Amino acid sequence: MRLAVMLAVLLALSVAGFLLLPAGRALYEDTRDKLGKAKPVTPTRVSATAQLPGHPAGDTTDGLSNRYWAVPAPGASVTYTFDKPFRLVDLIITNGASKSAEEYARQARALRLDLEVTARDGTVRREQLALNDKPGPQTFPLGISDATTVRLTLGAPTGLSRGRHIALAEVEFFRRA
After folding, report:
1. What is the rounded distance in angstroms from the CA atom of residue 173 to the CA atom of residue 87?
2. With contact defined as beta carbons under 8 Å apart, do 119 and 125 qualify?
3. How far is residue 122 from each of residues 42, 125, 177, measured CA to CA in Å?
4. Where do the domains of the chain lie?
5. What gap in Å lies between CA 164 and CA 36, rounded to an integer?
6. Could you give the C-alpha distances from 172 to 7, 64, 94, 118, 133, in angstroms and in order?
7. Which superfamily, per CATH, for 39-176?
8. Who has greater pLDDT, 9 or 26?
9. What is the reported pLDDT for 93?
10. Residue 8: Cβ within 10 Å count
11. pTM score
C-alpha cells in the first residue's frame, strides 16, 4: 500500500512538472531579463511596404529622432531583419516626427502598432502596442526569444489630414547582455 501511494505521488509530481515546465521556463527567462542589462541591437536590413520621398524606413534606426519614416495612410508596415537570433527584451518607440513637441504636432502619428516577431524556428508572436499621443520614447518590455525579424504595422492614426502624413521617428531594439 505504501509503495502504491509513493508511486502515485511520484507520478503526480512528474505530470505536474511536465505541465508546468513551460511556465517555469518563461518565469526563469523573465527573471533573467529583469536582472540582466539590456544592450542595443541594430537590424541588418530595414524594408517597408510604403514610404514618402525624403522619409525612408531606414530613418527609424539612424539614432536621430529628428528624422522619421513617413507614410501616407495607415496599414503600412516596416520590417527589421537581424543577422543573428536574439532575445528581444525591450522595444523603444519614438512616435511622430520628433521628440520635440512642436515638430511632433506637425505630422500625424499612429496610436497603435501591430507587432509581429518571427523566431528562428518560424514561429510568430503577435501583439498590439498602444502608443501614447505624446512626444518622446515609449518603452515596451517584450521578452521574446530567438527573434530574427520584427514587423511593425501602423494603425489608429491621429492628426491625419490633407497635407500631413503618418510619422514614426525611431525604433530601438534591446537584447539581453
Report:
1. 10
2. yes
3. 21, 10, 24
4. 1-35, 39-176
5. 41
6. 52, 11, 9, 17, 18
7. Galactose-binding domain-like (2.60.120.260)
8. 9
9. 95
10. 10
11. 0.80
